[in-house]
Structures are given as C-alpha cells and as structure tokens.
Specification:
Elements lengths: L4 H4 L4 H26 L4 H12 L3 E2 L1 H8 L3 H13 L3 E5 L7 E5 L1 H22 L4 H18 L1
Antiparallel strand pairs: 1-3, 2-3
Keywords: DNA-binding, Transcription, Transcription regulation
Pfam family, one: MarR_2
Organism: Paenibacillus glycinis
C-alpha cells in the first residue's frame, strides 16, 4: 500500500508549480465569475457567445462544441438557455439546409458589448501584480506548456 504522506508532504518543484498555477487560476476565474454573477449571467454562457462572435456571428453546433471542449449533445443543453434569453437563434445553413447554424442575435451582441469591457477591466486589475515584461514571460511560458500538451 502506498504511503499517502509521500503525495501530500513536500513535493517536487514541478508538482508545487502545477498546484500554484491551479490555485492562481482558480482565484482569477473566481473574480471573473463574480463579475458575471453580479451582472446576471455566468462565464460559460459568455464564453459561448464570444466563440460565436469570434466565428463571425454564426457557427455550426459541432464546431462550437469543439471550440469549448464539450460533446455535441452537451452543446445543445448549453444553447437552450441562451436561446430562451434571446441571445442566439438557429437558422438553416446557407449551403446545406439539413444543417443548423447558431447565430448571435442583436441582444447577444448587446450583452457582449455591455459586459465584456467591465470583465476585461476586472481581469486586468487582477493581473496588475505583474509588470508587463513579467506578463509577457508568463504568457510565453504558458504557451510553451500548451505546446507540450499537443
């Protein structure tokens, strides 16, 4: 039987760094989520709207699922409240009528234009503990870790 103390006591630098990254990320995400909650929404909904906007305002559900890392079945569940709120609607694909596209509505665009600036200011405020050169270095290191995952 493995002695659990080997995994909860002093850890190697790689493990300590990983958990510091997780804890820091959780704090930053928490600040962002508090902002969204105070404005009557949540980060998951906004992320979907942002991905649709990044795709030019319309996207296939399967493509959206891939971008946000969920299954096609789960993306349907996530889209329902956005459609009920009037932030999105679906239309036929212009080249293949059998396919449906998810389209950002004017109300969805308004929500993004109203709320994204405040959220981005919240994030920037939390990142002010780092100087610009440090942020650039951290960004480069995080990209390096991401490439290592591929």
């Amino acid at each position: 039987m493995t002695d659990i103390r080997n995994y909860v006591a002093e850890q190697p630098l790689a493990v300590r760094t990983f958990f510091a990254l997780v804890e820091t990320t959780a704090g930053l995400v928490g600040a962002s989520e508090r902002y969204w909650s105070a404005n009557g929404t949540n980060g998951a909904r906004i992320r979907i709207l942002v991905e649709i906007a990044k795709a030019g305002g319309a996207i296939l559900p399967s493509e959206l699922a891939g971008r946000i890392g969920v299954t096609k079945a789960n993306v349907s569940v996530l889209l329902t409240p956005l459609e009920e709120l009037g932030y999105i609607h679906s239309t036929s694909h212009p080249e293949d009528g059998r396919k449906r596209r998810i389209v950002l509505s004017p109300e969805g665009e308004r929500i993004l234009s109203d709320l994204l600036p405040g959220n981005r200011a919240t994030i920037e405020g939390r990142m002010k503990g780092l100087e610009e050169a440090e942020m650039k270095q951290l960004f480069a290191l995080l990209r390096k870790l991401q490439r290592n995952e591929e």
